[in-house]
Design a protein that fits this description.
By secondary structure, this protein is an alpha+beta fold. The chain has a domain at 121-166. The protein has six helices and nine strands. The protein has helices spanning 2-24, 68-73, 85-92, 114-118, 132-138, 174-178; strands spanning 37-41, 43-45, 48-49, 100-104, 124-128, 150-152, 160-165, 184-196, 205-212. The strands form three sheets. Strands 1, 4, 8 and 9 form a four-stranded antiparallel β-sheet that branches. Strands 5-7-6 form a three-stranded antiparallel β-sheet, with helices on one face. A two-stranded antiparallel sheet has the order 2-3. The longest helix is centred in the first third of the chain and has 23 residues, at 2-24. The radius of gyration is 23 Å and the shape is extended.
């Protein structure tokens, strides 16, 4: 929960600042424009991506703590000592690149099922269309997390649909590397979030900052 709580708290702080700025500027704080978003292909070559798509099987590394007798001796002692450079790098390698999305172009798909064969998580299936509850049980690996929406294409040439379970995707890009027609692509999702103007110019927004999702 730690990182999520910090990130969420900062986001809520930005939202509150924008609301205050709009209110002081005589505008309705409930009227918000949706943040502009963008998808950019990360492909650099047949087997090359602009992000590190190698997956790590390491479990989360435990942050070392100071000895109890040292930590209890003074309130000024930091309990968590932090990672050394080597361990921090290994922990960072566990990132699943959640800002990089698999994008499927059904018009170029030839339904060869090569992506199904190479997917290490069995999260891609080609099957007959149906209701969501029915689809979840007919996938190559049943999609059990009901809180995660399925990625479902339109009808393909054979009448089947492509169904992807985003809950277990590693964002490794193997489906895009294997696809002979480029129907799969790995695209980085970016959005621009508005930030409140300084107190000198209330009610207006500074140029948006572009950040990875």
């Amino acid at each position: 929960f730690g990182p999520k709580n910090i990130i969420t708290a900062v986001a809520h702080g930005h939202e509150a600042a924008v609301s205050i700025a709009l209110l002081l500027g005589g505008q309705d704080p409930r009227q918000r424009l949706p943040p502009p978003t963008n998808l950019m292909s990360q492909k650099m070559g047949i087997h090359e991506w602009s992000y590190d798509n190698d997956t790590s099987l390491d479990v989360r590394y435990k942050v070392p703590w100071a000895k109890a007798e040292t930590a209890l001796a003074s309130i000024r002692v930091e309990v968590e000592l932090g990672f050394d450079a080597a361990t921090a790098f290994k922990e960072a390698q566990r990132c699943l690149n959640c800002d990089v999305q698999t994008v499927f172009n059904q018009s170029t798909c030839i339904e060869c099922d090569a992506c199904v064969d190479i997917c290490p998580m069995d999260c891609i299936s080609f099957t007959a269309d149906g209701e969501e509850a029915d689809l979840r049980g007919r996938l190559k690996a049943p999609a059990l997390n009901l809180a995660q929406d399925l990625y479902v294409s339109g009808a393909l040439k054979t009448g089947r649909v492509m169904v992807k379970d985003e809950d277990v995707c590693l964002h490794c890009g193997l489906c895009a590397e294997r696809c002979p027609t480029g129907a799969w692509d790995m695209q980085k999702y970016l959005f621009k979030t508005a930030m409140a103007e300084s107190a000198k110019r209330p009610g207006r927004a500074r140029p948006a900052l572009e950040v990875a999702a």
